Each structure stands twice: as structure tokens, then as C-alpha cells.
Amino acid sequence: MAFVARARPRAVCARWQRTLRASPSQCTTSRCASSSSSSSSPLSASEHPFRIAVIGSGPAGFYTAYRAMSKIGGAKVDMYEALPVPFGLVRFGVAPDHPEVKKCQEKFDEVASSPDFTFIGNVSVGRPNKHAEGSTVPLGSILRHYNAVVFAYGASMDKTLGVPGEAALKGVYSAREFVGWYNGLPEHADLAPDLTQGDEAVVVGQGNVAMDVARMLLEDVDVLGRSDIAAHALDALSRSKVKKVHVVGRRGPMQAAFTIKEVRELMRLSDVAFHPVDRTLIPEDIKKLPRAQRRLMEILVKESGGGAPPPDAPPSKSWSLDFCLTPKEFRARHDDASRVGSTVFERTTLSAAFDPAAWALGTGEMVEVPSSLVFKSIGYKSAPLPEFADIGVPFDDRRGVISNDGQGRVWHEERTQEATMSFGHFPGLYCAGWVKRGPTGVIASTMEDAFATADAIAKDFASGASFLCPQQAASGWEGVRSETGIGSAQVVTWADWRRIDGAEKERGRPVGKEREKFTKTADMLAVLR
Amino acid sequence: MMPRPRLAQGLRSLRLVPRLPSSCIAQQQARCNSRLSAAPRLAIPGCSPRLTTSRDSSLSLRFQPRLFSTSSALSHGHVDPPKPGEELYVTFIDKEGLEHKLAVSKGDNLLDIAQAHDLEMEGACGGSCACSTCHVIVTDEEFFDKIPAADDDENDMLDLAFGLTETSRLGCQVVMTPELDGLRVKLPSMTRNLQESDFK
């Protein structure tokens, strides 16, 4: 063991050096060691600022940047974004009828206005850019030119159910695609879901994304028409024939992931009825529950006993929370073998109905639910960057997160045939947001976790911990640019984004919307030409 | 997942970076401390540059002492300084336990007040009761009962707040009135200790 303990770091070192081969300087000494050897005077923050690269411009990236800039004097942040437009899921995930949730963009704009902040839009890191006009820089290049790197690139993949019909049938979508589609995400702008094939839709999963999908399908299109929903989505929704939405979960109301705000919004929709929930899945004595659960159960019980709808104007649409059903198969329509017609669920029973941690067991009883549309809302998933394995950044595939210490410090790990060795924190590497803690939580939770990451960086900075390279050796975006040869014409700056932003607002004005988003990257970039 | 940190700690000395002689660490420490004006804590806000948080001022670096203070509202932010003789007082107890007693005007809400005085309170949704980032804890039950009761929307957001208590409110929904003169609120600690359940 003692031998291994001495030998392994050298192996890591060799591999680490390979990644850094093109480096103009040795980047493995600590800031402290180098500063004390080069000069006795302290580094000037203005000459040699502490440079942080943030990968991703969603709320996790911006809140980390904001906090790090305020806690580390003179720190410079370069934020890389693969798309020409910033804000990640605030722009492409938050539902269009939640403009108040998007107000955090004002804070992000304030952060971006700092002279210490540089937005590098249209540039993907470590993974080929998904659109043809975008550029890509290798992660290795980023590691050579910054003191610290924060991975805040979120969760851009879907979990899958792995049941028959999931991939083959038309009409089965992931909620992530659908959300991207109605929010104008270029990647899914051409999804073109056909909402006219029938009147029943099934949403598999009971988190807040499932609630958003249900609400978008049921909400009055005149209300949606005043939001920043993509024009193609408004058009398709206005022709939708969907009248009933089943929001289906494996477990019961006591285990469901949705939060009360989203439930209340659905209850408040005009012309939309709610089908009563199975009362046996809710404890008799609700009053004894902890506050948040109590209030959630209260609203479900209250709305379930809403009485008969007024006979003169029965609601034309409805939704239900269908509990204790797990999807087993998507079946084709009788008249069209290529398109989904129904979903087969197996009924489940809970290990303990009222225990929030209860698990679901199959009963063998099958239930078939008509479904002309299916939205799988069973969770997002992060993916490792291809270079992670080479440099020793461990990725927890089961949880879909970069392995970290809970505060955002990335672990350093070396895998050999014999064993996996862990070497403590990877100096200078951090993560924040969904790639750090998994794809759950509201903006407040992402903010909190981004702040924790920034605090960890600031703490490491103040304690003289080692970073990716000595402070004076970090040249930031200038270094990356000269190394990769990316021209300024290929990069979207913050000023450029403001022009795109202005053009979108301009487009929205005649149709009474806050903005009309560009849904193609080429159209975004055309504004700048 | 859990055993790894322990292993990592055990192997800390195996890091690539050569261990520094203690004199070097001391030098480094001194450098960091001098940067932070010999602050006893990391980046004590009064000593390090901070980004202003008020929403209508452009971002700038400011140096502002922020220890115990009894001050009038500053000119920036959404609040106006109180007219002489009409001051209402509210005390914020920040995450470090420092008290900030502020003279404010009737009609100001706690989020605007906190931001105008550079207290560490976010208002991610801009004060529209759509997030829980301006969560405050009223320290005195009597005062809590004097504040008009929270509506469903506010309670829905409070349900998601970290460190929720019986006397929690959203700062954006608490508007200063003469009845609330002398109100004391605590800013909840942001750092949630990670639970084992976070790794499941």
C-alpha cells in the first residue's frame, strides 16, 4: 500500500502533464509556491487577476460568477456558452407563463455588466457545438489558461424508461424536448409535436416539469399568447385537441415531487376541472403532517371535493393526478402502427402509503390509458465531458453528477485496472448547479448551491490552496483564443447578446409579447451581421 | 459515495502539489490577510469589494463598512430616506450574527430595505413573491402577529424555503408600518448542511 501510495501520484502527474502539454508554463505548482519564489511583493490583482472560467450561462453559472466576483477581490470571470444567447434554463426551461421567475435575468445582466466579467457566447467547451455556426474549444485549453474552472453546464440529457414503444412510436416525447420546443430552444425548435391526434395526453412523472407540461397543454392560449412562448408553439397549441391530461406517477401523493405552487396554478386555470385523487393515499389526519406536506395534501383534498361543476358551463378540459401506476409499454394506434395510441401501466402498491420515502412494488395488474400524446417527464440527466476520463475528473453515472465534496470541489480520481484511487480535490476544478447536485430544485436552490461553490473557491483562494496554474500564468480568454484560433466574429459578446435581446423585444412588440424569441441560431447571429 | 471523502482525506498528502514549507504558508497567509485588511474572517463584507445588489444601480465595486450600524437609508435602491421624525426602525441580524439597525420609511418592504443597505439578501424574482430567496425570520412572535398574515402564494413559496420556522416570512411581502416600528428579523443561514439523502 505504501508503495502504491508513492507511485500513483506520479502516474497521475504524467497523465495530467499530457493534457497540459501545450502549456506555455508549468501549471502544476501552487499559486503560493510560485508567488513566493518569483517575488516577495504580493501579486497585484489588477496585473494578475485570479481568473475563473465558468462553463455554462444558466443560473448556476451566473450565481457562482456573481458570488465569486464579490468575494475574491479583482477576480475575473469568463463565462462560456455554447449558444449565442445566455441564461440556460431560465430562458429555455422556465415556463413562459412564469415571467416573474425569469426576473433573475436582471441580476445576471448586472453581473455581466461588470468590467471583470466576459461573456463568450457561441463557444462550446469540450463537446462539439450542436449548431454549425458555433465554435468549440477543448477543455484542455481552458484548463491551461485559468486558475479555476467551474462546470455549470447543467443536464442536457433525458433519463429513459426502457419500455417497448418508447423510442419507436410517434407522439412519445421527452418533456425536456417539449419544454425546449415551446421555449424556442434551437435544438428542439423543429420538434413539431402533432397535438391534433386525440383528446387524451399522458404525462409520465409527477415533478414540476410534468406540471409545466400539463399546464401548457391546458392553459388558455390567449394567456400564453402574451408570454414569450415560441410562435410555433403558440400556433400548435391553439390547434390542440387535447382535453384531458393524466399526470401519472409510480408512487402516491405523499411521495410526489411536484410543489404546491405548480399544483395551485393548475387548480386555478379557468375552464379546467380536476379529477379527485385517491383519498386512501392521503393520511386521514392531515393536520399532523409537517407544514409543507400538510398544505399540499390540504389543497389536493379540498380540490378533490370541489362538488359538481355548474351545469350551465361545465369545464371543457380536465386533468388528473393518477397515482401508483408504472409505465410498461406504449402501444400503437389501431389505425396507425407508427403512432402511440395508449399507454399500459402496471398498478403498484406502496411499501408504506404515507411514508415520503416509500417505494412502489408492482402488483401485476395492468391498466391501459388512452394516450394520443405521451410526455416522459422522469428527469433530466447530466453527461460527463469527453475529456473528463483523461484528466481524472470522476463522474457519478448513477446520480448523473460530477463527483464532488458537496461544496462544489471536484474530486480527483485515477482509475487503473486494479483499483480506483482518489486523490482529494482536483486543484482548481469546481462544479455548480444540476451537474453538481442532480436535476432538481427551483432557482433558489440553484442559487444557494452556486453560492456554496463560490464560497468554496473563495475559501480555497484565501487559504492558499493550489489552483490549476499560478495566478500570473493565467491568461484567460486571450490565451484560449490565441491557442485555438477562434476569431472574434465567431464569438457572441454581451453587447452582441444585448442586440439580439433588443431585436427579440422589437419582434414581440407588434404581437403584444415581451419578446419573440429567435428559435434558430442562424437567425440570432443574423442580427449581428 | 460516502467513503470516498475519507479516503481522499487520508491521501491528502499525495496531491500533486509539493507540500509547502510552513514559512511559505505563513507568507501566503499574510498576503491573503493583508488583502482582506487583516479581517478575522474570510472576505468580511465590509473589507472586501462587493458588488452592489440594488437593482437600479449599475454594478460597481464599493467599499463600505458594514459592522453594527445605525444609519439612515442610503440614497440608492427603491427606498427613500425617512423624513425626520417619521423614522421607523427595523433591525436585521445577518448571517454572521451582526445587527444592522436601520431607520426606514413607512411603506418600504424588507427586501428593498435590505438591498438598499447592501445586506446579503437576494430577490431572485424581483420581489414578486415567486421565489424564497428573501426569506426572513421574525425573532419576536408579538411582531410576527402584527404583520398581516401571509397569503397562499407567499406560504407556497415559504414551503420551499431553507430553514423554515414558525415565524418565517418573505421579505418582499413585509411592508413597514408604524405598528412594526422596532421589528427585528434574522436572515437565515444559506449554508444547508448536506444530508446523506443528498447523495441518494
TrEMBL record, chain A:
It is found in: Mitochondrion. Residues 50-226 form the FAD/NAD(P)-binding domain. Its main location: mitochondrion. NADP(+) binds at Q206, G207, N208, V209, R250, R251, E262, G441. It is an enzyme of class 1 (oxidoreductase). The keyword Flavoprotein applies. Keywords: FAD, Flavoprotein, Mitochondrion, NADP, Oxidoreductase. It comes from the Eukaryota. FAD binds at A60, E81, L89, V125, W434, G441, V442, I443. GO terms for molecular function: oxidoreductase activity. Its cofactor is FAD. GO terms for cellular component: mitochondrion. It catalyses: 2 reduced [adrenodoxin] + NADP(+) + H(+) = 2 oxidized [adrenodoxin] + NADPH. Its EC number is 1.18.1.6. Belongs to the ferredoxin--NADP reductase type 1 family. This is NADPH:adrenodoxin oxidoreductase, mitochondrial. The lineage of its organism: Eukaryota, Fungi, Dikarya, Ascomycota, Pezizomycotina.
From TrEMBL, chain B:
Residues 88-191 form the 2Fe-2S ferredoxin-type domain. Its cofactor is [2Fe-2S] cluster. GO terms for biological process: P450-containing electron transport chain. The keyword Iron-sulfur applies. One of its GO terms (molecular function) is metal ion binding. PANTHER family: FERREDOXIN-2, MITOCHONDRIAL (PTHR23426:SF65), FERREDOXIN/ADRENODOXIN (PTHR23426). Transmembrane segments: none annotated. GO terms for cellular component: mitochondrion. It holds the Pfam family Fer2. Belongs to the adrenodoxin/putidaredoxin family. This is 2Fe-2S ferredoxin-type domain-containing protein.
